[in-house]
TrEMBL record:
Species of origin: Angomonas deanei
UniProt keyword Transferase, yes or no: yes
Keywords, alphabetical: Transferase
Gene3D superfamilies reported for this sequence: D-amino Acid Aminotransferase, subunit A, domain 2
Protein name according to UniProt: Amino-transferase class IV, putative
Single GO MF descriptor: transferase activity
Length: 185
């Protein structure tokens, strides 16, 4: 996954085509060889959804987190993932405001969508190029990211960095297995 900065969906509950936003997302995906991008709001670094997906975070304490319901389109995949989490004893999915700080602090991230189902995210490209590096550095200062988090960031070069996530932990495995059973039921 990648990060699309200064991205704001007008109304996530309407499946309307925002041509500029979609073309920016596609361009970033192609230029950086990423499957999907997370939309990062310009003012508060709120991350509500991907350009064509929802996501769940697995917090460091194994709590499943998702954006506020008013900020996302509640689809079948999310509904079935929530049922699977409950049936598998993973707890309720907590809907809350998620900023880039929570995304970066997560132990695991799962992308949700019609085609991919529930797909673990291995890596998020934080920036590639001077412009996105500057936006990321500004965000780091505004959100006061802790040093422990900053140590997880892998710098490929002066203008490229990413962060890795766990894709094989028990929470991820249980949720994917549970979702698969729910989807096939």
């Amino acid at each position: 996954m990648g990060l699309l900065f200064d991205a704001l969906r007008e109304d996530p509950n309407l499946k309307t085509l925002q041509v500029d936003l979609r073309s920016r997302a596609v361009a970033l995906q192609k230029a950086n060889s990423v499957f999907e991008v997370l939309l990062v709001h310009p003012d508060d670094y709120l991350v509500t959804e991907g350009s064509r997906s929802n996501f769940l975070l697995v917090s460091p304490s194994n709590v499943l987190q998702c954006s506020l319901e008013k900020d996302i389109l509640i689809g079948v995949t999310l509904k079935k993932a929530k049922v699977a989490a409950e049936k598998r004893g993973l707890g309720d999915v907590v809907h809350q405001r998620l900023t880039l700080k929570e995304v970066l602090e997560a132990k695991s991230i799962l992308m949700l969508g019609t085609s991919p189902g529930v797909l673990p995210v291995r890596r998020i490209l934080l920036y590639k190029g001077d412009a996105d590096k500057q936006k990321f550095e500004h965000m780091v200062k505004r959100l006061a990211l802790p040093d422990t988090l900053m140590k997880r960031i892998v710098k490929v070069s002066d203008v490229e960095a990413f962060i890795d996530y766990e894709v094989q932990n028990d929470t991820v495995k249980n949720l994917i297995e549970g979702y698969t059973a729910e989807a096939l039921a």
